[in-house]
Amino acid sequence: MYFPVQASLVPAQYPVTRTTESLFREVETPGGKLWRSASDGPALRRWVLRFEDLTDEEAAALVDCYEACSGGWRTLIFADPMGNLLQWSEDLEAAAWGKDAGLTVSRPGGAAARPAEFQIVNGSAAAARIWQELDLAPGLAVCFSGEVRGEPVALRAPGGAMRAVAAREDWTKVFITGESAGGPQRVELEIPAGATVHVRRLQAETQLAPSDYQGTFDTGGIHAKTRFAGNGLQVVAVAPDRHRAEVILESVMENGG
Question: How far is Cα 78 from Cα 59, in angstroms, rounded to an integer?
Fold first, then answer.
């Protein structure tokens, strides 16, 4: 079950409110000192989504999703409209990234650089790819972006969208926007045979064009265990075929979303 996508190919309208709640433990010593530390429990992320001018069909999709989830009883998959969907965008050597044989990934700028920069060398005799799989609702716009320099490279987004990037000596921001077919699918970079490229600031978002980069580590912006909060859906008809809605979603923050 996925959170519904609007006719505009996005899951939300702006502004969106997102908060993260973490638990802390406090201990007061006999001498009156107060010690505070993070608890072992995971954080809770909450989104408040407000919609205007929804059509009958769009409003019905929200209601159907809420009923299919039995309110907050069952979970759904939600792609954070404010986040980078990728896991480990700051470490292309992590297991979340798939790589074809022949590709070598390293950090010529040093591990302390932020944002992290990576050199990708294709030592094979054929084009090779580095990718990440994203579990997405059908009909969702997905923008895959990054900064590249060096030899030519190609970007691919869901739906078969592809963009070739010419060789540049300086960092160049590039992006490609595709449309999700639903389910696990890839965003990827393709490096020609024998080529060396440098990349940084890789990002996937549920919108048509890239926004400011948000680096990620273990947790990405796809939340597979999201629930409607208490009173998590309110839909009001304001005119024929026009509705206003408010949705409150919650997800326990775990590794991998």
Answer: 17
154-210 pLDDT, tens digit per residue, is: 999 999 889 998 878 899 999 999 999 999 999 999 999 999 999 999 999 999 999
Supply the pTM of this predicted model.
0.88
| Cβ neighbours around 218 below 10 Å, total | 13
**CA distances from residue 71 to 6, 29, 231 in whole angstroms, order as listed:** 20, 44, 8
Q: C-alpha distances in angstroms, 116 versus 54, 103, 203?
A: 41, 18, 13
Ramachandran angles phi, psi of 57, nearest 5°: -65, -45
Phi then psi dihedrals of residue 135, to 5 deg? -95, 105
**Joined tokens for residue 37:** 């530390």
CA distance 44 to 35: 23
Task: Give tens-digit pLDDT for 61-115.
Answer: 999 999 999 999 999 999 999 999 999 999 999 999 999 999 999 998 655 556 8
